[in-house]
Design a protein that fits this description.
It is a single chain. Strand 8, helix 8 and strand 9 form a beta-alpha-beta unit. The strands form 5 sheets. This protein has an 8-stranded parallel beta sheet. By secondary structure, it is an alpha/beta fold. It is globular, with a radius of gyration of 23 Å. It has 2 domains: 448 residues, Alpha-Beta Barrel (TIM Barrel), CATH 3.20.20.80; 68 residues, Immunoglobulin-like (Sandwich), CATH 2.60.40. It holds the Pfam family Alpha-amylase. InterPro entries: GH, GH13_cat_dom, Glyco_hydro_b, O16G_dom_2. It comes from Pseudobutyrivibrio xylanivorans DSM 14809.
Length: 540
């Protein structure tokens, strides 16, 4: 990383996440691919995107849709070739768009050559993973067992699927292998990595853990000092040699722990994804069991993290979360206003905004009919766990359909045709029927669409010193209303967000409304309409 105080290119960037399988299919096999992404680069440029975060495109058996990697230096034939990847990097660069890749290094696929060699008894590669004659009592993130028995009678450890054996980061050979992978891709011209579950990769031991409701054993791998040391070495040995942006996905992280991971002076990560706001409606941190969503709690969580970190990685949805307009909005009465408000909120906060594919047109959760429509391995494992708990099929169906990761993985709705312009073949995952009115083509032609609101808000953000560089401060407001200021030299903006389905009386500050999701404003009435977003400027 650069010396403290040096301006870094990513600090004013807008990042767009692409889930390749669902973005655009160029060859009619029903699966999105790299040529499909290339065909849409001008669309992303016109949207205002600076960086693409590309979910895994490596060779993979696909048990966890690419997060089970069998070759870190290759391209999955489903997505194209290495030449396609090089062409994507080159063409994006010409448009001024950088690419960061997903780096999944907590585990490999069980079909990776390293693991195959380990199962064959090669002592070198057995030490790449965790094998034991006696499994510990740790819990799994996918609700399945954490240890799987081999043909030799011993067991190997996996915090996720049995198809994803955990790497042993106490082994220096693993460090050498993965840093070689990093250099391979950085030398091809990518700009950095999004590091998957990065704060759990280093296990201090594999002893039994203290019994917990969820994830027994996490005291042995969550935010360990060994992990911090690894990140510092990655930075010193590799990342600092390139002009990179490194963002980490961090699980169960507190603000204080997050500061250690992305404090610039420590030389670890540039930014982190936290999850607390995603769990605002979860019972006991278990996302499958919901409680009533309260906007005011979301506001408090976002405010806490805005104050805690210098450059938060801000997001409201991704490939592992349900659609934000379903999560935090009202899709029945205020779908459009909800989507625009969430856009305005995300792009007004301090930090780096991340937009997930389809978010910019207000895509909603999938309209799956039954459990057979679900492809997600996590949902499958959770369904099996619920069966063991004797939950009825009706209840399991309800819980999984509303929470499954597949809700955010339905194909992008480019137009209103049969397969939404995503493919000429059969889509790998059911296309939402609301493609008839939620699609790129229709919204490009509508001056007041969600898509054009995103374009305008991104342009507004880039031209505002207050938003890109200014300080953040929350202003007192009624419940469900989020008011905060962004202030730089000679510019102060008041951001108003009514996160409720009711009018809310508020006190207005500033001189003039300069941006919002309603086409007409009545300044004499001191209230915000349902899901109203507005930016009010004030002279300093």
């Amino acid at each position: 990383m650069a010396t403290t105080g040096t301006k870094k290119w990513w600090k004013n960037a807008v990042v767009y996440q692409i889930y390749p399988r669902s973005f655009c299919d160029s060859n009619g096999d029903g699966i999105g691919d790299l040529p499909g992404i290339i065909s849409k680069l001008n669309y992303l440029k016109n949207l205002g995107v600076d960086v693409i975060w590309l979910s895994p495109v490596y060779p993979s058996p696909g048990y966890d849709n690419g997060y089970d990697i069998s070759d870190y230096k290759g391209i999955n034939p489903e997505f194209g070739t290495m030449e396609d990847m090089e062409r994507l990097i080159s063409r994006a660069k010409r448009l001024g768009i950088k690419i960061i890749m997903d780096l999944v290094i907590n585990h490999t696929s069980d079909e990776h050559e390293w693991f195959k060699n380990a199962l064959a008894g090669d002592p070198k590669y057995r030490n790449y993973y965790f094998f034991s004659d006696t499994p510990n009592n740790w819990g799994s993130f996918f609700g399945n067992k954490t240890w799987t028995k081999t043909e030799n009678g011993d067991y190997y450890m996996h915090l996720f699927s049995e198809k994803q054996p955990d790497l042993n980061w106490q082994n220096p050979d693993v460090y050498d292998e993965i840093t070689d992978v990093m250099r391979f891709w950085l030398d091809k011209g990518i700009a950095g990595f999004r590091c998957d579950v990065i704060n759990i990769i280093y296990k201090n031991s594999i002893k039994n853990g203290r019994r917990r409701l969820i994830l027994t054993g996490r005291e042995h791998y969550l935010n360990t000092e060994g992990c911090h040391e690894l990140l510092k070495r990655f930075n010193k040995d590799v990342w600092s040699k390139y002009k990179t942006f490194i963002v980490g996905e961090t699980i169960f992280v507190t603000p204080n722990e997050a500061k250690l991971l992305c404090d610039e002076d420590r030389g670890e990560l540039d930014a982190i994804f936290f999850f607390e706001h995603m769990d605002v409606d979860s019972r006991g941190g278990i996302k499958w069991f919901k409680k009533q969503y309260k906007p005011n709690k979301l506001i408090k969580i976002i405010d806490k993290w805005q104050n805690a970190l210098e450059f938060p990685a801000n997001y409201l949805e991704n490939h592992d979360q349900i659609r934000s307009v379903n999560h935090f909005g009202n899709t029945k009465e205020y779908w459009e206003k909800s989507a625009k408000l969430l856009c305005g909120l995300n792009l007004s906060l301090k930090g780096i905004p991340f937009i997930y594919e389809g978010e910019e047109i207000g895509m909603t959760n999938g309209d799956f009919i039954g459990l057979r429509d679900i492809k997600d391995i996590e949902s499958y494992n959770v369904n099996q766990a619920m069966k063991r708990l004797l939950l009825t099929h009706k209840l399991r169906r309800k819980l999984i359909l509303r929470t499954s990761r597949d809700n955010a993985r339905t194909p992008i709705q480019w137009d209103s045709s049969e397969n939404a312009g995503f493919t000429t073949g059969t889509p790998w995952l059911r296309v939402n029927e609301n493609k008839s009115f939620i699609n790129v083509e229709a919204e490009q032609e509508d001056e007041y669409s969600i898509l054009n609101f995103y374009k305008q808000m991104i342009e507004f953000r880039k031209n505002s010193k207050a938003i890109t560089e200014g300080v953040y401060r929350r202003v007192a407001a009624p419940n469900d209303v989020y008011i905060f200021t962004r202030e730089a030299k000679e510019e102060r903006l008041y951001i108003y967000c009514n996160l409720s389905s009711s009018n809310r009386h508020v006190e207005f500050y500033g001189d003039r409304i300069i941006f919002g999701n309603y086409h007409a404003y009545d300044r004499d009435n001191f209230y915000l309409k349902p899901y109203e977003f507005r930016i009010v400027a004030s002279n300093i």
